[in-house]
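FAQ
Q: What does a multi-component entry look like?
A: The components come first, one per line:
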Amino acid sequence: MPPDPAHRALQAQFHAGLWGGPVPDGVTAPAEAEAARRFNVYRNNVRHGLSRALAARFPVIEQLVGGDFFTAMAGVFAAQHPPETPVLLAWGEAFPAFLTAFPPVAHLPWLACVARIELARGRAYHAADADPADPAALAVGDPAGLRLTLHPSVALYTSPFPAVAIWRAHQPGAVPGTPLPPGPSHALIARAPGFQVVVEPVDPGTHAVLTALAGGAPLGHAAGQTDPTPALTLLLRHGLITAITTGDAP
Amino acid sequence: MTSLPTTPGLGFKPEHFADIAGRPGAVGFYEVHAENCMGAGGAPHAMLDALRADHALSVHGVGLSIGGAGPLDADHLARVARVIDRFQPASFSEHLAWSSHGAAWLNDLLPLPYTDATLAAVCAHVDQVQDRLGRRMLLENPATYVTFAQSTWDETAFLAEIARRTGCGLLLDVNNVFVSAVNHRFDPRAYLAAFPLHAVGEIHLAGHDTEDLPSGPLLIDSHGRPVADPVWALYAEVIARTGPLPTLVEWDTDVPAFDVLLEEAARAGRVLDAARQGQADAA
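Then the predicted structure of the entire assembly, as tokens:
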């Protein structure tokens, strides 16, 4: 059925009106003079709803910049990067890059890195399910040739700033005033059985091993000169190895 | 018709999951927003699987933009179909509203004028949804803050004609009726007298906020407080006419403790029990 041109034009006007354009033609109310005030309810609903959705995904960013600033910033972000689908749980992928380029937070260069942690946590929370493999398979044959399939929620994180420590300092139960370690930070972000999303700080060597394993490298190659034990211990502790195959298996 | 039980139900809030698990069957059904189930897996899916084991499930969409001028988003309809296939709810419902424009999702249930052309568009969209999902859907009456000079149909006649042409059922949100009636200064009882109650497969109840305009109150459909007394009165009048219907209490912002929601559900349950008693006495 061809779309009705009048309906289409009205919705285009309505859309523009929500983001600052005039009240669309034909929008009315019993007291005609109040039509604009009533139309504002829709403007406010859209902004408030998107601001709350963004805050739900980036709660530490909201804590770091404050509620009023966050709400104003969310309005700018939503106007530039409106959701492209109704699945709001997936909205906000562009937020870290937006923070990098948003002049009012240019003095907080680590803010985007904290946002990337929250983005990864949200992805992990909604990632596909997969059961842990039997770790006994790790003890069969030559371990150097084993390849691991990691849980779909696994993300390896790195930042030139102590972003992981900043994020942890804004979690419930964090001790106020804990000094931040200087320098870069690395972490494993994933969903453990029981659905808890973990952010585990790791050293650069373990990060490299985990990254190689996630890329499909066999254990011996992934470890190189590094001891793979901390990486394997972490993966096993959180049930993040979902398949163990020998090197020549697909 | 719907296979939701003719009992009270509650909107599912993940923060109440432990309370619900500790009191299975406290209400007959739970309703979830389809769009909140559209991740790949994890806790949201596991919680719904657990809910489904003890309760009927209603999936309520907010994203299909059935009142949109353009074609339905086929990708989003496919997502809805996956949720329906995965969780096999007793009911699927959506809104007489639009919410997307081009590639932008507007995150609100926006109003449309009621004309012959918009009627045809809405009916085509409802047909498409019902064909794709292989089931009858329910369409909900909106709460609105403005009306359109372009409209040539009453909302009740518009909804009745959609139900007649498409065979869909209706979801009667009594709070939306009251909000719109106050906002547009009409009599909610006249609206309900004209409403095609024979097509109603589910009732929604919720709380609203009140603002003051120079001409009088403007009610906002906020879902953030108890159901208002005038809405309870209208609900009881509807149920007295229809007999018991599945009745959902929605509370989506400033969500209180589970017990507070159970009190609201119990109040709906007393209205449903009175209607059942009335039917029994008449028999």
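Q: Is there any commentary attached?
A: Sometimes. For this entry: Chain A touches chain B through 49 residues (CB under 8 Å).
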